[in-house]
Design a protein that fits this description.
The complex is a heterodimer of chains A (392) and B (584). Chain A has 392 residues and is of the alpha/beta class. Chain A has two domains: 146 residues, D-Maltodextrin-Binding Protein, domain 2 (3-Layer(aba) Sandwich); 188 residues, D-Maltodextrin-Binding Protein, domain 2, CATH 3.40.190. Chain A is globular. The N and C termini of chain A lie far apart (67 Å). Chain B has two domains: 243 residues, Orthogonal Bundle (MetI-like fold), CATH 1.10.3720.10; 263 residues, Orthogonal Bundle (MetI-like fold). In chain B, helix 1 packs across helix 19, helix 8 runs antiparallel to helix 22 and helix 17 crosses helix 19. A two-stranded antiparallel sheet of chain B has the order 1-2. In chain B, strands 3-4 form a two-stranded parallel ribbon. By secondary structure, chain B is mainly alpha-helical. The two termini of chain B are 51 Å apart. The chains are: A alpha/beta (392), B mainly alpha (584). Chains A and B meet through strand 1, helix 3, helix 4, strand 3 and helix 5 of A and helix 3, helix 6, helix 11, helix 12 and helix 18 of B. Strand 1 of chain A pairs antiparallel with strand 8 of chain B, so a sheet runs across the interface. Chain A: This is Thiamine ABC transporter substrate binding subunit.
Chain lengths: 392, 584
Amino acid sequence: MTDTNGRTRRQFLRVAGAAGVAGLAGCAAEPVDDATSEPSIGTSDDEVTTSGTTTGAPTESMADTLVVATYPPFVNAPSTSPGAWLKEEFEAEYDATLVYQTPDSELNYYIERAVQGVDFEADVYVGLDTGQLIDADSKQGEGQFTGSLFAEAGDVAGSDRVKEGLRFDPQNRAVPFDTGYVSLVWNATMDDGEFAAPETFEELATGDYASDLIAQNPTTSTTGEAFMLHTVDAFGEDGFLDYWSRLQDNGVTVLGSWSDSYSAYLNEEAPMVVSYSTDQVYAAAEGQDLQKHQIRFLNDQGYANPEGMARFASSDAPRLARRFMEFVLRPEIQAGIAQRNVAFPAITDAPLPEDYAQYAKEPAEPVTFTYDELEANLSTWTDQWARRFAGG
Amino acid sequence: MDGSVGAALRRRVSEARAAASARPRATLERLTLPLLALVTALLLAVLFYYPVATVFVDAVVEDGRLTFGPLLSVLGDQFYVGRVLGFTAYQAALSTVLSVLLGLPGAWILARFEFRGRQTLRSVTMVPFVLPSVLVAAGFYATFGASGSLNAVLSALGLPPVDLLPSLGAILVAHAFYNAPLVTRVVTAAWESVDAGAVETARSLGASRRRAFRDVVLPQLLPAVLTGAALTFVFTFASFAIPLALGGSQFATIEVFIYSARRQLEYGRAASLAVLETGVSLSLMALYLRYERRQAAQRRGVRTLARRPLVPDSWTRERVGRRLAVAGYGVVVALVFLAPLASMIYASVSVDGRLTLDAYRFLLERQATGAEFQVKPFPAIVNSLVFAAATLVVALPMGVAMGVLTTRRFRGRWAVDALSMAPLAVSGIVVGLGLLRGLVFGFEAFGYRFTVTGAVAIVAAHAVAAYPFVVRTVAPPLDRLDRALVESARALGASRARTILDVELPLVWPGVVAGAAFAVAISIGEFDSTVILAEGGGSYTMPVAVERFIGRRLGPATAMGTVLLAVTAAAFVVVERVGGEFRG
């Protein structure tokens, strides 16, 4: 019935369940970007309001499909993930379809598309951190990637309730929607129940904790990067490499990814692993021994890794995208995402269940680097780390 | 009189007609080989050379100008050229030695002894090859780790515990876990096509058994052993997940640095390191191909060696010795191969030491109630099997055609050979990135943007990755084939294609079946191109499902891994049972 090209494209997206799939044939040829032969943005909510060719109230009408890009575990984790629930709740309220796109290379997929000058359908990216935003900005100007990848959030209702410390985008494009703290997870049943994790970074590097820690490589893992940044914060950019040398002499194990190190930890390879302070939420839900899932904040601090969402500048559904961001910031949705993503909400008054705080631990003092500090230094620090640690 | 002339004429006309009707078929048969070669070349160009070139350009082009800047800066960096490349080559060399040592006895047993389940055992040797590294790492930790089962056994025996992880040794053993079966597979196929007549002739001329082995059998096995070694070196040289998971970051290989450069969007550095890595791998491949070409020897008969029963009728000292060696090898195999697999299966049915089927319940629940955008187990199984079957259908003719082509004598043959082997020498990260930028994003021509994704593209990518194995398992025996057989078939009027089908193929069939098993293994185990070409669609496979099911507990991933293990083993048994019939 609706047979404009734009409609069919949107419907196609819905049917395919994800954007960018060219079907079984596997090959496709589309006319290259050209104002006159570009029918694919037919139902953009902006165009509707400006062109006015569609009947109905122009100010109220919006695109009917929102393409949300995110990292795979957000929709596909084996325990719980917020994806399916969020889609259901959103669609129940808005007369729109939410389609997920979960490229394996996460945000890099879109940055690369922008550089190559290839259109993409995603409207919003969910699950962005400071480092990724810096990556996206640093590539600007390369190839056909001219403007910012993301648009300014603008007037998103509810964003004023986001905790101040979590805002990480100086240009106010990314809006934080949850946060996690990178901390130590430790096993109190090790050493015949005698083991207790150290309180400070200094203690961690002493002989009492020789070969007791599993961490991750900052160049290949997000938790590894956060933990390294925490040591930069604790020892300064002139001192953190020496601290890592001490850790290395003390027998720290540094593996490639969080999953490698966590599975080594589950196999009781060492009594401590760098992970998240929400670790007990899973363990409790699974009925596992909480003694094996203790949390330690070194120096009473935890490195905060807020996750943000931002609207792509190229989105053809900006109004629906903004509605979505407002929706995500609502207290009950914040609580729902936090529980399913096993994280902390970005606002203070999300109605979490009583026992959530019992299992999800927050540090006395969250530590994090600002966008500007990381932009100037992050790649230098990780390169220095890799050169000092690898081959050593 | 009239009648007989008429009959003769009629006969002549009908013969001419028959000849005329046969001609298109003959033409088709004559064209089959060049056509297959052409298709192979096209597929390689579209699915391999073009995408990989889009990545390598970053190493030599800066701001649109050809400067070689990134490449030169990596080549001039002592850290990359000395430490990283040095360590990468060192661990690859050690891994290769260990894989060959561990793989050869397996080939000896499978090729020379008869016992119940031999055929099945031979089929499932390829299973380790397809397992996702994250599961292998988990299995290794559960077996050889500080609190692993090996230490449990040691402490039960009153022995002190050993701490094997993380270490260089663990990397080597895990590499052997992946690659020793490959050596076994290639060498078994070669051993099974050794000519029994030649051995008997040598023996009848007074050669001792050992002498006959050294002078007759060994020269025929050597190319296969070196094939296995060369492949192992190339694979372990580009190894990524295993060193990171079992060795820790102080043992980072060049591939780790490529991955992290790509993650930080430092394409110039990633591409330069990839050029360096590919340069080493390809040189080694080319060296090996030169050797293999020189190695070509004539062979006469086609009768293969008879196998001895594993349990002999009567025992002599020598027989006891051999059986003890077999038993000793069995213990090593159990430790290196079975224990990690058993640990993985155990992890899928236990939480905190309690037995539970929660992980399998998760798979069923995900199947029943999972959202359309989530990865479900059953479609993953079906996709894996469909892709594997399709890969087999595409890669087998491609591989045989290239095998026949590259065993012919012509100028520049080694170049064609090396170019057609290149998919083995380029790392998964580079191919993956190339596919993403070159094909998924597409290229512009004539005002259109052409993109290649979806199931057909996945099968094509799998076939490109798999067919070199078919080539490598059929080329050496093809080379050793008696030219006179082929020539007499041709002289008797058989077309080139018919000669291949009726004469050459049956003689190299063990190699073809081995290649088929490789093709299935590559397809089932492949991750990078699958996940990129299936972007967002429903074309995910079992390894993709395993990676998606990794979380804060091992259960779901290991349960999916166990399914992968079972389905793959069954697939291999089918491939070899069906493939084995051709010999008749």
